[in-house]
């Protein structure tokens, strides 16, 4: 798909119910045009992962997700050999009377026995969107390995040789900034920090994503979310939590944010007991 400008990308994202501001759309547009990974950093729930999903949708490409965690290593992200199938192949060859050891050794390391993990799958799938989610949760060693892969989009499989992407996948790397990601990886990418949406943008998002939501409820929930983000909470709500909170209220038949239902559904927006107690104790759910 030929996207000629950031403004066109904003329009396309909007068609998929993702409301991007000019800064984010420009960063994403440049990443697409320059074929550079897009590094998105920001608090959890501000729309980083959702952008990757939306880009996959508008590009008509599969989303291939690599969820990072402590202890993730190259083998889990790249490929693995299907040992069970290799063993079955050897047993079948034995039953068939095959005695050519060199031939069998070659056969068990054919591509059909290779299980592609997210990174290899993204290189072999044309087109594709590769989401490397929460890279800050992975170890330094994996971060260095990822930098090498993203530098030339090539993977070496000793038994098969080099596997190179015919066309680089669209890559979105996200971080919640639980730790600092090394500069070397950031330099390989185009960088953008995602803020929480403005009040009016959050209202627009709620109305767009939840058609049953009234404007009154959307404005009240967005206003409450804005107050909660300024309340020094352990984990303030992102737009993902605001959507969940509004959906919970709609499920209960609410058309406005009355204090009783707001308190009863607060667990959709806040995930720490200390935060819930602070909000209820300080009357932060009251609105004018």
Structure notes:
The chain has 288 residues and is an alpha/beta fold. It is 49% helix and 13% strand. The protein has 14 helices and nine strands. The protein has helices at 6-15, 22-34, 48-59, 74-77, 83-95, 101-108, 118-124, 140-152, 183-188, 199-209, 215-229, 239-251, 259-264, 273-281, and strands at residues 38-41, 63-67, 79-81, 114-116, 129-133, 154-157, 161-164, 170-175, 190-193. It has a five-stranded parallel β-sheet with strand order 2-5-8-1-9, sandwiched between helices. A hairpin with a 3-residue loop joins β6 and β7 (161-164). The radius of gyration is 24 Å and the shape is elongated. The mean pLDDT is 92.
N-C termini distance = 47 Å
Apparent shape: elongated
Strand content of the residues, in percent? 5-15%
Percent of residues in helices comes to 40-55%
Radius of gyration over C-alpha positions, nearest whole angstrom: 24 Å
Structural class: alpha/beta
Task: Give unreliable regions as ranges.
Answer: none
Number of E strands: 9
Q: How many strands, which pairing sense, and closed or not: the largest β-sheet?
A: 5 strands, parallel
- Order of helical and strand elements: HHEHEHEHHEHEHEEEHEHHHHH
Number of helical segments with 4 or more residues: 14
Order of the strands making up the biggest sheet: 2-5-8-1-9
Mean pLDDT equals: 92
